[in-house]
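ARCHIVE CARD
Drawer: 12
Card no.: 0347
Subject: one protein chain, sequence and derived structure
Cross-reference: see card 0346
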Amino acid sequence: MPNVKVFLSYNEGAAGGKAAQELHDKLSKMHVDAVMARHAILPGTDWEQAIRTELESSAALVSVGTKGYSARPWCQQEIGWALGRHVPILWIQYADGESPAGFLARTQALIADDPDQPEVIARDVMQWLAKQKNTREALVDSLLSALETSDSYRATRECAELLILTGTLSEDEWNRVTQAAVTNRQVRDAFEWIGEGRYRRRVTMLDWLKRHIGPLDP
């Protein structure tokens, strides 16, 4: 299963482009296919049709609400397209006054308290994706696939930290974690430290994950 695909809707001004690009880069490292449609359009391509194609193939839409975003007609059309397809929409409020409007007015925005920390915002987006029926399965599958093919202890730790953000795993999903520890030494031999002072000790990454996330109760 491919990575979950998320369409980034943003104001193409300097602030909007910067925020969207930073969020795109962080989400991509978290195994999310974040799409900035206008940047992906090749010269000579029908750009309107290209944007529609990206919208149609995206499982969720994230509104990058920097200053001027809500006044951009194209941004509102992208939201309308997502509403028409009944895909989940997350509005990230980067600037005062850029709060959800119209059919989204009753939804709670994700407040970007510190726009200069895109990794924190990306992690919040990950947690939101993990709660959506349209996106959870693909998100968890991409993280488990990354764990299974991890080629370093660092990559294993990063996958484990992201899996924790998803909340909990089904029995089958957890079985994939344990099997990854059997077949991949980069998973089996990875470790984490727990405790403080004289009680600080090293545990396997699998045991560390069990402390934070495990299979759903049968």
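Annotation on reverse: The chain has two domains: 5-133, 150-212. DSSP finds ten helices and seven strands in the chain.
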